[in-house]
């Protein structure tokens, strides 16, 4: 895959509300989305665009439907109304063959890794290649070892079961499986949740390195302020059932909304911003 569409670190895209005219740089376009469970409306008139090569962070208070939005994009949660187009296609309107082909263009890392507990790490990674790419077990295993190395895991981890791994290793193994079919876009649901600060920072750096090296687009649901300040090109805030703002972080942080102000300018927000500034200073030096 070409990396020509990737945004270089530190380069901000122009601010946007998440609406606007779709163009060739838009890989996911969401328009007038509504998600409803019985009487509970989670999203209403939600609009958002994800641009090729960016890392887009999605934040919001508890119950705002961040993970529901991710599931809507990948087709696991059909919306009550509205449209979700991935690579220009309405996933839910495609026939089975076309949908499976389109789904192979993105990889998903769920919050807890979602590895199969009865399979070893290498078997977990190889399975999508066997099931969807038609490779035999030997070929799939060889490629799975390459994916394992890509995410920084050693060959010793290959034959371990998920229960034998640390939290950070589970995340990396799940990421390797998400990369099994060479996707163009990664969907990550709370990828650093449960990790200690050192492991979380290392995982953030891995995501950014993979984006730059492979030309990936990344949709990232997170509560981690360090992640937002360190690797995200834009941040989308879900509030009041829709995307309140979607822009580079410095612009989002100035949005006159009570939740945004408390989130980004509270003690943790100030600490994350200060750490980001120190890291930028070290890079310049």
From TrEMBL:
Pfam family name, one: ABC_tran
Residue ranges annotated for the ABC transporter domain, each copy included: 28-265
Molecular function via GO: ATP binding; ATP hydrolysis activity
Highest taxon listed in the record's lineage: Bacteria
Keyword Lipid metabolism: no
Disordered: annotated span: 1-21
UniProt xrefs under SUPFAM superfamilies: P-loop containing nucleoside triphosphate hydrolases (SSF52540)
Keywords, alphabetical: ATP-binding, Nucleotide-binding, Transport
Keyword ATP-binding (UniProt): yes
PANTHER family given in the database record: PROTEIN TRIGALACTOSYLDIACYLGLYCEROL 3, CHLOROPLASTIC
Protein name: ABC-type transport system involved in resistance to organic solvents, ATPase component
Organism: Frateuria aurantia (strain ATCC 33424 / DSM 6220 / KCTC 2777 / LMG 1558 / NBRC 3245 / NCIMB 13370) (Acetobacter aurantius)
């Amino acid at each position: 895959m070409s990396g020509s569409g990737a945004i270089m670190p530190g380069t901000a895209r122009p601010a946007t509300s998440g609406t606007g005219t779709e163009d060739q740089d838009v890989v996911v376009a969401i328009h007038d989305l509504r998600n409803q469970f019985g009487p509970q409306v989670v999203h209403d008139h939600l609009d958002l665009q994800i641009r090729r090569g960016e890392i887009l962070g999605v934040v919001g208070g508890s119950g705002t439907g961040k993970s529901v939005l991710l599931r809507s994009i990948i087709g696991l949660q059909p919306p009550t109304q509205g449209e979700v187009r991935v690579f220009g296609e309405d996933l839910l309107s495609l026939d089975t063959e076309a949908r499976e082909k389109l789904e192979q263009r993105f990889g998903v890392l769920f919050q807890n890794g979602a590895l199969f507990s009865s399979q070893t790490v290498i078997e977990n990674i190889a399975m999508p290649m066997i099931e969807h790419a038609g490779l035999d077990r030997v070929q799939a295993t060889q490629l799975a070892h390459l994916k394992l190395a890509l995410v920084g895991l050693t060959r010793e981890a290959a034959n371990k079961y998920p229960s034998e791994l640390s939290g950070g290793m589970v995340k990396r193994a799940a990421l390797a499986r998400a990369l099994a079919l060479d996707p163009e876009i990664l969907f990550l649901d709370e990828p650093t949740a449960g990790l200690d600060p050192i492991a979380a920072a290392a995982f953030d750096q891995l995501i950014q390195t993979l984006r730059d090296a492979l030309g990936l687009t990344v949709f990232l649901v997170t509560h981690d302020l360090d992640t937002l300040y360190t690797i995200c090109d834009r941040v989308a805030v879900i509030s009041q059932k829709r995307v309140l703002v979607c822009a580079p972080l410095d612009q989002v942080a100035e949005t006159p909304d009570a939740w945004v102000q408390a989130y980004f300018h509270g003690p943790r927000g100030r600490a994350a911003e200060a750490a980001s500034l120190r890291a930028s200073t070290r890079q310049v030096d």
